[in-house]
Amino acid sequence: MDTHALRNTLGKFATGVCILTTNDSDRGVIGMTVNSFAAVSLEPALVLWSIQNTSECFKEFTECDRYGISVLQHSQEALSNRYARPLEHIVDHGDCFVDSRGVPLIQGALATFSCKMSALHPGGDHHIIVGEVVDFESHPGDPLVFFGGAYSRLG
Ligand SMILES: Cc1cc2nc3c(=O)[nH]c(=O)nc-3n(C[C@H](O)[C@H](O)[C@H](O)COP(=O)(O)O)c2cc1C
User: Fold this and answer.
1) Full DSSP string of 117-147
2) Which of 43, 88, 93, 147 is surrounded by the fewest CB atoms within 10 Å?
3) pLDDT digits (tens, 9 = 90+) for 26-75
4) Pocket-forming residues, ligand 1, beta carbon under 6 Å
5) What's the pTM?
6) What is the CATH number of domain 19-31+40-148?
């Protein structure tokens, strides 16, 4: 199979962009840009995302008890690029806040989900991480959209 063509074709599915965050005992808060986020279930409240098996953050995100999902606003493209850089996942203090459950989240996001690890499933060169939503917030604004390998906006 032509994986380059497959990647391009998968890119025809427009998504939002999130930054996933968790606490690492050695490095503090770490963050990673992700567009594989999806809703799974309302009752119970479950969401999923997938992480590359080779990611430098793999151990932290697959072994943590809690993590945060922040859906980015259209104005937060620079943050998306910042936390997509390989091996540069330590979150700058000014970019995040910590919720009442100790979960780090990105400041100024369009929506946030405070999650508890629910399940981990192998999925080829990725692992699928299912989270139970413990808390969530949403704010007015336009989403950052990812389509055809580039950022876009609604409308
Ligand atoms: C828009 C966008 C979406 C991404 N989505 C994912 C994703 O769903 N899962 C993933 O593991 N990496 C995703 N990445 C890649 C990571 O953000 C990051 O580039 C990668 O983890 C860097 O390698 P490292 O983790 O080894 O440092 C995405 C990158 C971008 C720019």
Assistant:
1) EEEEEEETTEEEEEEEEEEEEE-SSPBPEEE
2) 43
3) 999 999 999 999 999 999 999 999 999 999 999 999 999 999 999 999 99
4) 17, 32-36, 49-52, 55-57, 84, 86-87, 146
5) 0.97
6) 2.30.110.10
